[in-house]
Amino acid sequence: MSGRFLIEGPEDARLTILLAHGAGAPMDSASMTAAAKALSAKGFHVARFEFGYMAGRRISGDRKPPPRAETLNPEYKAAIAELNAKGPLVIGGKSMGGRVASMIADELYTEGRIAGLLCLGYPFHPPGKPEQLRTQHLKGLRTPTLICQGTRDEFGTRGEVSGYELSKAIEILWLEDGDHDLKPRKTISGFSAADHLATMAETVLAWTARLQP
């Protein structure tokens, strides 16, 4: 751990990935840790951080709902500034963390401060509320983006997302039978969670190789 960040992977990596957590689980949750380890194993410098409300929960134990995602935009920008990554930077995160990153991505990409956006389980809509789409800003997104999504993610299944109007800058990796944590049911899919994380990391490696620094 380095200050407010959890760090994995080589310091001299060609590219750094900064990840924020989802709405309900901290940066050291099992799914975040597994994703960070899979990415660092591919040679990425991976940093995780927490928004203030989640860090506060560790002290108070208070489980009140998270703030609206857009109100966290300044906190994400502050984390980028504090991290001060050397070389190309990809921002993103798990669920809400990726959504917050997606809201600030184009501003930072235009300024040449980031190379891309990585979302692990994008929350296209709240569970059970497919009409409440969170895709308006994704229609005109200019930042090169990779979304890694399970085909049965309750925040946006493959069948649902195929009908959305999304920017051509967005690529989606579909992981068969994966849930919101990208975990499949092995007896149904034939894949394990480790299989899907390995595929995710391999795909991120190939995708970042195409990004402009």
Automatic annotation (TrEMBL):
Domain KANL3/Tex30 alpha/beta hydrolase-like: residue ranges: 15-208
Sorted keywords for this record are: Hydrolase
List, alphabetically, the Gene3D superfamilies matched.
Answer: alpha/beta hydrolase
- Protein's recorded name: Alpha/beta hydrolase superfamily enzyme, predicted hydrolase
Q: Which Pfam families match?
A: Abhydrolase_11
Q: Does the keyword Hydrolase apply?
A: yes
Q: What is the lineage of its organism?
A: Bacteria, Pseudomonadati, Pseudomonadota, Alphaproteobacteria, Hyphomicrobiales
**Keyword Hydrolase on this protein?**
yes
Organism, scientific name: Neorhizobium galegae bv. officinalis
GO MF annotation, one: hydrolase activity
Q: Which InterPro entries match?
A: AB_hydrolase_fold, KANL3/Tex30_Abhydrolase, NSL3/Tex30
Superkingdom classification of source: Bacteria
